[in-house]
């Protein structure tokens, strides 16, 4: 097995502290200039994602590689999945949309180009958009997400437009594994296949990573966990990208639904379980800071992580809007400053004995309030909660088992997926829940509640945690947590 990363001496630069990354303790290990960069970036800071929003503009339709987990032809406006968009924009349209969103959502701090193809396979459209945004909306952070094939060619261009954050998707260092993920790449006007293609891609990804770090750009690496293909290999990837100066590693679960029409989907490649994903993230965290709050967003996502307000800003709805951006920018600065001041003033509680922690699952449509029926939820957001503190852990997918009053069975076997996904949780918050699921959750040691329906999630978590504490249900760890 040839590992491309082992053929070169890794540079000794970049973020060296294990904890640097997404939480408060990690940020403390970073230089002040870097902390300044990530404190209001919802994708790079776990704390920031509760308070700041992001948007993607889909100006890059073409791609120069084929991945077995990607099919950009499939589109559903209700679906959140990388590569999915409802409309591709020209740079002019993108600028108009960014200004409209920035004026309406003042806590939007980050603009990214992430598809639906690869931004660097569409360099004219991508850099024309970045050039104009850097001139016309200077208060917005600029990000790009790429497969890395053309990254060495455009590293200087990225630095020139003050693009401070780059995400590279690196799924392997071994070309033999790469050949099982990428059937071909388009390179130097030719389609190249198999191991040869994977070698070129991996070498360019790592070289591009090093070049960006040398130019002071913060780099996050995404990897898709594919059971039986690269799952045993991603800890090596994590170590290699860390050595080359990557700031953060985001291991994401494969999405392989057959209806999406991807190669993996139609050939039955399975996705990892939540337990497998969590175990891999834990093993990688020995050498690298891990991102755990990724929502695998659409390439035209708008709003807070976990919500999509894109339909509020379609081209027909913003066509007649005239945005006074200097006025909007002044308001944005006031709102964002107030958020940062509020976060700085928040003082963690002191106690001689640490309060017990609880894992609480939340069913929410948009990630802001508790507004999802337990049986209608396709995802549960998991939070770690203690006295006055909340931290988002991850998002867990479940199969839909209830599609309406006429098809909402309560047989125990239909809930096995939910019970497995929530096995280590102390409780679950939802807007409504049937008596059957309620009883099955209680038997599994999971306390359900619909008493906080339509409340903001943070408020509901605090109140639910306090109720569990007063009822004596948090004196010991949940059995599944204790054995994890």
From TrEMBL:
SUPFAM superfamilies cross-referenced by the UniProt entry: Nitrogenase accessory factor-like (SSF53146), Radical SAM enzymes (SSF102114)
Protein task: Involved in the biosynthesis of the iron-molybdenum cofactor (FeMo-co or M-cluster) found in the dinitrogenase enzyme of the nitrogenase complex in nitrogen-fixing microorganisms. NifB catalyzes the crucial step of radical SAM-dependent carbide insertion that occurs concomitant with the insertion of a 9th sulfur and the rearrangement/coupling of two [4Fe-4S] clusters into a [8Fe-9S-C] cluster, the precursor to the M-cluster.
Annotated signal sequence range: none
Record-linked PANTHER family: FEMO COFACTOR BIOSYNTHESIS PROTEIN NIFB, FEMO COFACTOR BIOSYNTHESIS PROTEIN NIFB-RELATED
Family the entry assigns: Belongs to the radical SAM superfamily. NifB family.
UniProt superkingdom: Bacteria
Pathway named in the protein's UniProt entry: Cofactor biosynthesis; Fe-Mo cofactor biosynthesis
Name of the protein in question: FeMo cofactor biosynthesis protein NifB
InterPro entries: Aldolase_TIM (IPR013785), Di-Nase_FeMo-co_biosynth (IPR003731), DiNase_FeMo-co_biosyn_sf (IPR036105), MoaA_NifB_PqqE_Fe-S-bd_CS (IPR000385), Nase_CF_NifB (IPR005980), NifB_C (IPR034165), rSAM (IPR007197), rSAM_sf (IPR058240)
UniProt organism field: Aestuariirhabdus litorea
Gene that this sequence comes from: nifB
Domain Radical SAM core: 49-300
Cofactor(s) the record lists: [4Fe-4S] cluster
Keywords for this protein: 4Fe-4S, Iron, Iron-sulfur, Lyase, Metal-binding, Nitrogen fixation, S-adenosyl-L-methionine
Annotated transmembrane regions: none
Annotated PROSITE patterns: MOAA_NIFB_PQQE, RADICAL_SAM
Record GO terms (molecular function): 4 iron, 4 sulfur cluster binding; lyase activity; metal ion binding
């Amino acid at each position: 097995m040839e590992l491309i990363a082992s053929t070169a001496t890794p540079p000794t630069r970049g973020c060296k502290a294990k904890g640097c990354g997404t939480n408060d303790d990690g940020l403390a290990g970073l230089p002040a200039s870097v902390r300044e960069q990530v404190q209001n970036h919802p994708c790079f800071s776990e704390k920031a994602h509760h308070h700041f929003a992001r948007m993607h503009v889909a100006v890059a339709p073409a791609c120069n590689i084929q991945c077995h987990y990607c099919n950009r032809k499939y589109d559903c406006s209700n679906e959140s999945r990388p590569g999915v968009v409802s409309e591709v924009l020209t740079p002019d349209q993108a600028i108009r949309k960014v200004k409209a969103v920035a004026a309406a959502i003042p806590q939007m701090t980050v603009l990214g180009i992430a598809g639906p193809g690869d931004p660097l396979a569409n360099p004219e459209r991508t850099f024309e958009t970045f050039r104009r945004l850097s001139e016309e909306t200077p208060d917005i952070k600029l990000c790009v997400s790429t497969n890395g094939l053309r990254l060495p060619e455009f590293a200087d261009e990225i630095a020139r437009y003050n693009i401070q954050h780059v995400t590279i998707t690196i799924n392997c260092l071994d070309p033999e594994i790469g050949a099982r993920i990428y059937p071909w790449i388009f390179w130097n006007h030719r389609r190249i296949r198999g191991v040869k293609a994977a070698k070129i891609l991996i070498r360019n990804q790592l070289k591009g990573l090093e070049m960006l770090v040398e130019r002071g750009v913060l780099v996050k690496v995404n990897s898709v966990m594919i059971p039986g293909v690269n799952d045993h290999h991603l800890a090596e990837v994590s170590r290699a990208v860390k050595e080359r100066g990557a700031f953060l590693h985001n291991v994401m679960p494969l999405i392989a639904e057959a209806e999406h029409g991807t190669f993996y989907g139609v050939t039955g490649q399975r996705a990892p379980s939540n337990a497998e994903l969590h175990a891999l993230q834990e093993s990688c965290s020995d050498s690298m800071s891990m991102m755990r709050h990724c929502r695998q967003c659409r390439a035209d996502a708008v709003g807070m992580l976990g919500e999509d307000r894109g339909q509020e800003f379609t081209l027909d709805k913003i066509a007649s809007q005239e945005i006074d951006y200097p006025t909007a920018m002044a308001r944005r600065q006031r709102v964002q400053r107030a958020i940062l001041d509020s976060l700085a003033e928040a003082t963690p509680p002191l106690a001689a004995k640490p309060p017990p922690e609880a894992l609480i699952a939340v069913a929410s449509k948009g990630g802001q309030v508790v507004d999802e029926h337990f049986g209608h939820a396709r995802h549960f957001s998991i939070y770690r909660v203690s006295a006055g503190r909340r931290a988002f852990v991850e998002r867990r997918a479940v199969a839909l088992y209830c599609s309406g009053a006429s098809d909402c069975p309560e047989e125990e076997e239909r809930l096995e997926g939910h019970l497995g996904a929530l096995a280590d949780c102390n409780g679950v918050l939802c807007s409504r829940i049937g008596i059957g699921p309620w009883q099955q959750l209680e038997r599994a040691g999971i306390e359900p509640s619909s008493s906080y329906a339509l409340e903001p999630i943070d408020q509901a978590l605090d109140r639910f945690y306090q109720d569990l504490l007063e009822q004596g249900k948090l004196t010991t760890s949940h059995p599944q947590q204790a054995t994890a």
